[in-house]
Structures are given as C-alpha cells and as structure tokens.
Amino acid sequence: MLNRILIVDDEPALRRALRTSLAASGFSVSEAANGKDAVEQFGRNRCDLILLDINMPGEDGIQTCLRLRHSAPGVGIVMLTVRDAEDDKVRALEAGADDFVTKPYRFRELLARVRAVLRRVNAAPPAAGVLHAGDLELDLDHRILRKSHAEIHLSPTEFDLIAYLFRHPGAPLTHAQLLRAVWGPEYGNELEYLRSYIRMLRKKIEDDPARPQYILTEPWVGYRFRNPSDPDSPLPQNEDL
Predict the structure, then answer these.
(1) Torsion over CA of 171, 176, 179 and 182, rounded to 10 degrees?
(2) Residue 171: which region, alpha, beta or left (left: phi > 0; alpha: psi -120 to 50)?
(3) Helix (H, G, I), strand (E, B), or coil: what is residue 158?
(4) What does the alpha-carbon distance between residue 67 and residue 64 come to, in Å, rounded to a whole number?
(5) Distance between CA atoms of 164 and 194, rounded to whole angstroms?
(6) pLDDT of 238 strictly over 60
(7) What CA–CA distance (Å, rounded) separates 186 from 135?
(8) Which of the four pLDDT bands, split at 50, 70 and 90, describes residue 4?
C-alpha cells in the first residue's frame, strides 16, 4: 500500500512540482492550499505524512501544525522553512513537527527526510534491549555503551542523554526538549549543561570529536543523532556546539 502524503502550500506551482516528484517516487499525493483546507482534508481522508509550509496567509504553518498534531498524534509532519528563520525551526518542532527542510532545498534531501520520518512514525515503540548505530551498541537493560565491542564508561546523566538520542535517530531535538527529557521538566534554558555533556559524549564516542559522525549540531535548534548505517541519515559537517 502506498504511503499517502498531503502537501500544504499556498503556491500552486510548488504544489504541482512536489506532487509530480513525490508521485514518481511511489507516494499517493494530495494537496491543500492553506491550513484550513489541510485540516478539513485530513479530517475526511487521513494520510501518513504532511508536508507543511510554515509561511502561509491566514492560519500559518505553526497554527496548522498544532491543530493537526492535536487531532492526530501519530501522523508524520515535515515543515518547510526559510533558511534564515532559525526561530521558526524551533517553533515548528515545539508545535509538534517531526522534522523540517529549509528552502531552497534539493528534492533528494526532502525525499530522504520524508522517508526517514515515515520510518519513525511507522516503527514499533522502542523496547528495552540493545540498540545499534554504526559501531555503537547501547544495552538499555544493563545501562552499558560499547563501541566496537569495547565498553565506554558513562556517568548516569551521560547514559540517559545518549539513550534519549538513540531512541530518536534522525530526529531534530531542541535544546529544551533534551534538557527536560534528561534533567527534568523544570529545566529548559540551561544550555551550558547540555553543551558540556554533548562535548563529553563526543570525546567518548567519536573518532574525531571536531568532526562528529553521531551527534550532529542543528544550528540554533539543538542536536540530531545520526546512525551512520542509515542510508538516509544526514551527512555530517564541521560542527560547533
């Protein structure tokens, strides 16, 4: 059965181009010109993933994302943002988007993000056991991390942080999301805590911490955990905390 995608954008030419390319890639595609139409269409005919432009007249992409996420917690949502609007990316993730792609983008990049989100939303919830990413092996039952079968010593907080990253491969995770998940709900602004622990983890798991392959920085947003064994994983670049 084909995965169904709903494109939400106020530009007809962009919708047509995306629809043609996605259909050629094996998806069933429908369109909506604005947030109101998107919510109504989704209510009539559920889909697996929504491609949602953040800048639309009337109800914008953030408001639409909030409404769609409230009505359908399990649907995949990828938001299209402009390159210089870093705050929009954080707002999109906090509104419930699974990922974002910045304009202008290459279709191949967009397709990889779409497929990665579909894999995540269709996957069974992670269970206790052993998780793998590249040369890393995370034993959740015994709270042990190994690299190439050699055990890496981690503090309890380091383990909780790497475990959270492992459980969300390929997903952009905001600073506040990571702080609240690992340190507690009362946290969210203590960026130096997070940066310090990311720095320590990179020293322990990366061959070259200055050019990480696993924990990638999303500038002004947070971090993204990369599984080098995943063909659709984002390519690493030179990183800054």
Answers:
(1) -50
(2) beta
(3) helix
(4) 5
(5) 13
(6) no
(7) 34
(8) very high
